Amino acid sequence: MITIGLTGGIGSGKSTVAQMFRELGVPVYDSDAEAKQLMTTSPDVKAGIISLLGEQAYDENQLNRDFIANKAFSNKDILEKLNAIVHPVVREHFYQWRKEQSAPYVIQESALIFENGIQDQYDLVILVTAPLQMRVERVVERDQVSQEKVHYRIKNQMDDQLKIELADFLIENTDWEATQKKVNRLHTTLLKLAEPRF
Ligand code: ATP
């Protein structure tokens, strides 16, 4: 089994592409969703977050998302410490999940593969891109947030140009049908690459 990373900046369409692969029968691990889940279900993560941010990080057993987001996005040091608590647990959870899959290849969707310098954990990495203004418009529409907020979040991510140099496959997601065709083609390529060689 080979392991494929799927990444892309905010609003590029990673989750959309991930869903297309799922519909082709490919097991996809959504790191962001799993990380959020583990922040309430993993006792180690929960204890780490409380010791970093205090009891206010949780209401009862529910994650206090706004409180955590405000702390993490206004202070780089806190964000790094938070990532250091959550990422190793997600990584281990992903490895366990992968063991349970039986497929020629699996995909891990993660927003920050290149930012975190973890591309070597994958056999190959797919990058999803779209023009900046299109990404901003998509996120404004999807999350009902201001353009400024989206620009601010994008500024914290690595420039697409640098990511393109590091990626193995590129999906320019500007048109739904063209993206679906690219995903279908890439699926065929990845199945061939995953075939055992003797
Ligand atoms: P984030 O990093 O914020 O999670 P993402 O990269 O996963 O974003 P998606 O959630 O897949 O991006 O897409 C952002 C929005 O753009 C969604 O509302 C999605 O439906 C829409 N979208 C994605 N691809 C296309 C497309 N090719 N044409 C039109 N709309 C699209």
Concise account of the structure shown:
This protein is of the alpha/beta class.
Describe this structure in words.
The protein has nine helices and seven strands; from the N terminus they run βαβααββααββαααβα. By secondary structure, the chain is α/β, with parallel strands linked by helices. It folds into two domains: 1-27 and 104-198, Rossmann fold, CATH 3.40.50.300; 31-100, Rossmann fold (3-Layer(aba) Sandwich). A hairpin with a 2-residue loop joins strand 3 and strand 4 (62-63). The radius of gyration is 18 Å and the shape is globular. The two termini are 15 Å apart. Bound molecules: adenosine-5'-triphosphate (ATP). The site of adenosine-5'-triphosphate has 16 residues, from helix 1, helix 6 and helix 9.
Bound molecules: adenosine-5'-triphosphate
Q: What does the main sheet amount to? A: 5 strands, parallel
Strand order of the largest sheet: 2-5-1-6-7
Number of domains: 2
CATH architecture of the largest domain: 3-Layer(aba) Sandwich
Q: Please report the first level of CATH classification, the CATH class of the largest domain.
A: Alpha Beta
Helix content: 55-70%
How many H/I helical runs?
9
The ordered string of helix (H) and strand (E) elements is EHEHHEEHHEEHHHEH
Which class best fits the helix and strand makeup? alpha/beta
- Look up the CATH topology of the largest domain: Rossmann fold
Low-confidence stretches: none
Q: Provide the CATH superfamily of the largest domain.
A: P-loop containing nucleotide triphosphate hydrolases
Q: How confident is the prediction overall: mean pLDDT?
A: 94
The backbone outline, from C-alpha atoms, is globular
Span between termini: 15 Å
Question: Which radius of gyration do the C-alpha atoms yield?
Answer: 18 Å
Strand content: 5-15%
The number of distinct β-strands equals: 7
Catalytic activity: 3'-dephospho-CoA + ATP = ADP + CoA + H(+)
GO molecular function, one term: ATP binding
Main location: cytoplasm
Subcellular location: Cytoplasm
